[in-house]
Specification:
The chain is of the alpha/beta class. The protein is built from 8 helices and 8 strands. The chain has a single domain, classed as Rossmann fold. It has an 8-stranded mixed sheet with strand order 1-2-4-3-5-6-7-8, with helices on both faces. Strand 1 and strand 2 form a beta hairpin. The protein is globular and about 40 Å long. The model has no long low-confidence stretch (mean pLDDT about 95).
Length: about 250
């Protein structure tokens, strides 16, 4: 691809071109955005890439600068893509942060190949889609987004309106999906990564019992319920506290 930002590269993986940006040196740290987002969204959380890490900001398949020719998306396949990217970068084990769809990708990574993730932060990514999330998906459309977010969508997705329409179709399709995000407590119990689970107590997609069940099922997990927090409560006024807490967690508190 032409005109890539500094640090930006693409790799052919599983029939798609996966775009990523890598900054710094040290222990590998994966950062996975939410569905319909892109790796560039992390600039709203981290003022600069975390020191002491080789930070890798990934555009999931079909998002941002990454391609998705066949137009299909599952979080299970997204995990396979990211694991293949990690393989291609010569990384054996890493730490990771995922928000919403990025967190759901991490759940699949941590169960497909448990030894690859040493520690992870899961933000607003449920292990299944409850009725609240499915209702949201059924009603979701570009027109329901504020004008500023519609503009942001056009800015972050570099392949134009067709790419945005593809993502909208995929998002609405999650409403009738029951086999991709279907983790049971015994399945979650196979996760070996130290895990910090972050949810807002006012998340319109996931009632509070969802993160509580994740916490009680994942062996080495900690739960942070953000008071008055919505979906993805790590932006704006909360970002400094989130960054401090996440990096402290990675250091072992």
């Amino acid at each position: 691809m032409a005109d890539l930002p500094p640090g930006g590269q693409t790799k052919p993986i599983n029939g798609v071109e996966v775009y990523y940006e890598s900054y710094g040196e040290g222990e590998p740290l994966l950062l996975l955005h939410g569905f319909m987002g892109s790796g560039a969204d992390w600039a709203q959380v981290f003022k600069r890439p975390p020191e002491g890490y080789r930070s890798i900001f990934v555009d999931l398949r079909g998002h941002g600068r990454s391609t998705n020719p066949d137009g299909t998306f599952t979080f299970r396949q997204s995990a396979r893509d990211v694991l293949a990217l990690v393989d291609g970068l010569g990384i054996g084990q890493c730490k990771a942060i995922g928000v919403s769809g990025g967190a759901q990708t991490l759940l699949h990574m941590a169960t497909q190949q448990p030894g690859r993730i040493s520690a992870m932060v899961l933000v607003s990514g449920g292990h299944y889609f409850p009725k609240e999330a499915r209702t949201f998906m059924r009603k979701f459309s570009l027109e329901t987004l504020p004008p500023a977010e519609q503009h942001a969508m056009q800015t972050r997705h570099k392949h134009g309106d067709a790419q945005i329409q593809m993502l909208l179709k995929q998002a609405k399709g999650f409403e009738s999906s029951y086999d991709d995000m279907s983790f049971t407590p015994p399945h979650l119990a196979t996760i070996t990564a130290r895990t910090l689970i972050v949810f807002g107590d006012r998340d319109p997609l996931y009632p509070i019992q969802v993160p509580v069940e994740m916490h009680t099922s994942i062996p080495q997990s900690h739960l942070w319920i953000v008071p008055n927090g919505g979906h993805g409560p790590i932006f704006g006024d909360l970002r400094d506290r989130f960054v401090e807490t996440a990096l402290s967690f990675f250091r072992g508190w």
